[in-house]
Specification:
562 residues; five-stranded mixed sheet; 2 domains; Glucose Oxidase, domain 1; single chain
Amino acid sequence: MLHTPFRALLPLLLAASCTTATVAQQKTKIKVKRKTESAEAVPATPQPVRQAPVEADWAANYAGTITQADLRQHLTILASDAYEGRETGEKGQKMAAEYLAKEFAALGLQGIVPNSDNAYIQHFTMERSTWAGTGTLKVGSQTFKWLEDFYGYGNSPFQTATKVQPVFVGYGIEQDAWSDYAGRDVKGKDLFILLGEPQNAQGKYVLTGTDKGSKWSNDYRAKATLATQKGARSVFFVDLNPNNNFGKTAARMAPYISRPSIAYADAPQGAARAATFFVSPAVAYKLLGTTSAALTKYQTQAGAAGKPVASPFKPVAMTISAPKNREKFTTENVMGFLEGTDKKDEVLVVSAHYDHIGIIGGQINNGADDDGSGTVSVLEIAQAFQKAKTEGHGPRRSILFLTVTGEEKGLLGSEYYTDHPIIPLERTIADLNIDMVGRTDKEHEGQPDYVYVIGSDKLSSELHTILETANKKYNPIELDFRFNDPNDPNRFYYRSDHYNFAKHKVPVAFFFNGVHDDYHQPGDEVDKIEFPKMERRTRLVFHTAWELVNRESRIVVDSNKP
């Protein structure tokens, strides 16, 4: 290779170096420019906006824990033959009380009953009485026999032969302008009352002005209650319907009449209901000193007048003996308490009765629907709320899960609780009562699911709205309010345990699916329960309860409907 001296080459090298740098800078500028132009030509991809987290629907979450399987599991036990129909005060009822107490404890609910051997059980003393079956009724020289000519329900003030001077008070009705008691003092007296209510010549009922009768038509209890309020000692009812055969009716009722009746052992003097008896038309004619034609004429005149008319009858004295055998016993309400958080001093009651009618004529009446269905619904609702609390989503207000005895004997267990509340009633915001939610009545056969809701409009407009809203939001079913009518002859509003809370001005809602052919019959068994429907109905009660215990304000008491 030829070699050139370095000094001679230096100017040439510097020149070349500058040229190369200039070219590189120009290339870099071109690249930057192109990159900038490219960035301006293509917009940047937008970044997603972060959404606020959606709060979980905890009500729906925990309602889902109420299942057909759990309802069936509990009901299969409580409505089994081993529990002998859960007759108040009998072996099966006490077995059921023990089962419920253990379940409440296992769930983690608190027992709050003071001075009890079991903090989940409220004991109280009752008196059981049964008819001795040796009763007689004598008018003049004629003697009438027990279960042939007369029979009774409830208590009896006639343990030994007692002379009675009955007082005739027509239909025994007091409503609006109609009063069979106007100007009459019947305190301590024995009343004679016609069943049914007056109709005019066109067959219209005087009190309603329609073809449909009022509550007085079929519910003798309403008349007996009114007589009790008036201070009467006893009431003798007579049915003058020519299509009814008293002897056959008495024979049909005999198994029920022979069952024990129950009353409070420590009831204050004068608090007992008026004794209730039914007599045959033959007894009625003898007592009133009249005839069938004369009584029919009296009814026609009253219907035509549209008001009570003067009685032409002069009742004669009679001597009656209707002895009862009596014994005291204890029975039990069972309850579990779930304490709330910031509003724990306010309490919601969720109730059902767990007793039934026991063994009649050798047959066990297991009462799977009445009211095993309501009882196990209370257990499942308690389980759902307890799970919510365990997982940090417990209710703001407290809840008392209350299962009562003695409903079939006259709402006795709930009456005892409301007269001897563990939690003061002024702190009780409402009672949600569940009684018979496991079947479908004839009115709704072949139709979509439904539930009768009774009493929700009586004391609190907010309660009525809350349950309607809850139903609309979660898997809605038909809400049937027909029995809210105070003139409904079925009188369902007065026939379950919520009523004892309503009497004390505590708002109530009674969930019910109506009666069926197995009502108070041996056929009321678990295999006839419609568990998918029962699950939805129980969840509706849960959702209503969830809103009541978690809303900011306690529901108002803003009405006082009958």
